[in-house]
Amino acid sequence: TINGSITLSIAWYMSCKRTGLSPLAPGQWKSLLAAYGTLYAAVQLLRPFRVAAAVAMSKLSKEFLVQTQDRLHCSKGFAIAFQYALG
C-alpha cells in the first residue's frame, strides 16, 4: 500500500542519513530494519486517530456533497465529479 511505501522510503532515508551508506551495502540491513520498525510502530499507534478523523470527515463530506448538488442543481454523480475536479 501507499502507507507501507512511504514508511519504507522514510526508513531508507533515515538509514542512509544515520550510517552514510545505502542499506544495500553489506551489514546495513540492521539499520534499515530498525528505522522501519520504529516508523511502523509509530504509524500503527496513530491508526485509531486516522480512523476517527476519517469518520468525522465523512459527515462533512456528505454535507458538502449535498450543498454542491443544491447549488448546482445537478445529480449526485455530477456533484462527485465536480468535487473531484476541484481537488
Structure description:
- 84% of the residues lie in helices and 0% in strands.
- It is an all-alpha fold and 87 residues long.
> Radius of gyration over alpha carbons?
21 Å
- What is the subunit organization of this protein? single chain
Largest sheet entry: none
Helix/strand-derived class?
A: mainly alpha
Total beta-strand segments: 0
The SSE order reads: HHH
| Strand fraction | under 5%
Which key terms come to mind for this protein?
mainly alpha; elongated
Task: Spell out the blueprint of helices and strands.
Elements: H1 2-19, H2 29-72, H3 76-86
What's this model, at a glance?
By secondary structure, the protein is mainly alpha-helical. Helices cover 84% and strands 0% of the residues.
